[in-house]
Amino acid sequence: MNEATQAPIAGQHHYAGDCPYCGQAIMSERGKLPLLCPTCNHSLRSAQPDSPLHNIHRCLKLYCDVRGRSSRREFWAFTLAAALLLSIEAILFADCYRNGALATIPLWLWLILPALLLCPFATLTVRRLHDLGKGPGLLITFLALGAAGGAIVAMHSAGYQPELITKNVAAWAWAALRADIIVGSIILYLATQHRLPGPNEYGPAPK
Fold first, then answer.
1. How confident is the model at residue 107, as a pLDDT?
2. Ranges 19-33, 34-48, 129-143, most confident
């Protein structure tokens, strides 16, 4: 049996990160990585499990996957990269607005990037909550409050169906958005916390 497929021995093997190709956990033996991934057989000679680019790549690879757990490094690597991209888009949007070019650009083009980032960020957040032994309830609450409150406020501002979207309804929507900020802040706070050591009900601990 070669080094890449050798079964773990108690006291000698330790979790060393995830394979950058298939995302499966890699066990090191006495501090050394195997030459090949035991799952997909890709070479691990150039693997850098702790690099930000690897963490971002893993989030994109697990685009719609809420199974398992994600580390703080993985969460913040992807979150900061997404925030940078959205900030650049916001700057371009503001520049187009000042130059009067906004009317020539369809609105849906500005929504592509947030839409593409929403799913991997949501699944990553669920896995980060799993890492802390928590379910997806906070994220579901955050998305529900944001979607409902934002939609109602937008319809009220546009004067859509004023007989249904009254001022009182809009006031409740604004309250939901304020509550959404609180829930989002709680999620971000939890994302900075250490996990409990060892495996939990959602799987083994990531690095």
1. 78
2. 129-143
